[in-house]
Amino acid sequence: MTPSKTPPDLPPSRSRRRLLGRLAAGGLVASQAAAAGELLRPLEVAPSSRTPGAPVLDHPYGVPSPREADVVRRSARAWPLPGAASSMTPLADLFGTITPNGLVYERHHGGVPDIDSDQHRLAIHGLVRTPKLFTIDDLLRLPAESRIHFLECSGNTGSEWNGPSGLPVQLTHGLLSCCEWTGVRLSTLLEEVGGVSTQGKTNDGPWLLAEGADAAAMTRSLPLHRILDRALVVYAQNGERLRPENGYPLRLIVPGFEGNTNVKWLRRLKVVDAPLQTREETSKYTNLLADGSARQFVFEMDAKSVITRPSPGHRLTTHGYYPISGIAWSGRGTIRKVEVSTDGGASWRLARLDSVARDRALTRFEADWRWDGAPSAILSRATDSTGYVQPTRAALVAARGLNSQYHYNAIQQWRVDASGEVRNA
Ligand SMILES: Nc1nc2c(c(=O)[nH]1)N[C@H]1C(S)=C(S)[C@@H](COP(=O)(O)O)O[C@H]1N2
Ligand SMILES: [Mo]
């Protein structure tokens, strides 16, 4: 595979060309034949073995190879206010299920605040017995828990509501990442303040208001009982302290819930009787249906999957074997199965899950495919542990209409034309 036309907002990708060159079936056969000849003689000393390499501490904090310099976060468009914008994870260039910290997508409503961890406090107050202020050191002295969870913006893949956008997977599905988060359980913190002193005034029981210390003061109300067994207040991601853009020094992780409820730069948690109807749950993050009514408090991200290799921008250079690789996830539990189709959805077969299907985390799938050179359409379809099956776009639009901006989780199709070019068409 070699790169085809990249969309106008993407500079041509060197690593993509190289990566897909490696995947090309014909290339593999040719290079194996050449290697067989070479192997009749002793191997030459590698040029890189002739001189000493760079010293230790060349990079006190390690960085990727300069040859991977184009594997970076990108924005789908130029935002009028760069502080209130998003950048997207390069899904086509990633492996396994963990997103490296420097590639975790960013979504900020009011820019990245500069917060001194020593000065930062978390208030836990409202309808609790003994309200308290916590320093980060206080939190580091409480029992810790590490869990791997995906994070997805509810606006992810909104580009596809009106049909194929032509964009590559980074810009259609890249408001998505998966990290190992470390922190303190919300339930432990509520014990620290003596417990909750209300039954709440809704069917969901008491609610929890979470507020960030950024210029947007991002604020959301959450149904406490629905999140208590898994929500974490975290200070670390993938083994190191949070990155500033992901909430340093403290953020809330609500596994499976839409991205915006995972409040960054967390400064307070207030137990309340009922949702507070903040800006984020009235003017934003509601889903307008075809009949004019709006769905409010739609928290869980429904099951979804996408093929990341091959995907738009890739090109199949020869006929033959290609693995189809992608990721699947569900905000309601684990991934039970992923099916793949190479004929536009006429027939489906099971993909292998090549990583453990963890609760509310990315799961990598792979399926074998022999491309015979005919135009094809490749798709993936996830089923989660509740039995829910990822819908077609037609089914999603029939149920929700075209006005709901958020929670687009339909089956995604990539077309492969006779020249091997992969497109979102
Ligand atoms: N305080 C605060 N928290 C926030 C936001 C914000 O702007 N301010 N953005 C939210 C949104 S919309 C998303 S999708 C996620 C993005 O998290 P990330 O930037 O770490 O990927 O953070 C959420 N938490
Ligand atoms: Mo978001």
From TrEMBL:
Keyword Signal assigned: no
Cofactor (UniProt): Mo-molybdopterin
Listed InterPro entries: Ig_E-set, MoCF_OxRdtse_dimer, Mopterin_OxRdtase_euk, OxRdtase_Mopterin-bd_dom, OxRdtase_Mopterin-bd_sf, Sulfite_DH_SoxC, TAT_signal
Keywords: Metal-binding, Molybdenum, Oxidoreductase
Highest taxon, organism lineage: Bacteria
Domain Oxidoreductase molybdopterin-binding: 109-277
This enzyme's EC code(s): 1.8.2.1
Every Moybdenum cofactor oxidoreductase dimerisation domain range: 296-412
An example molecular function term from Gene Ontology annotations: sulfite dehydrogenase activity
The protein, known as: Sulfite dehydrogenase
Designated gene of the protein: soxC
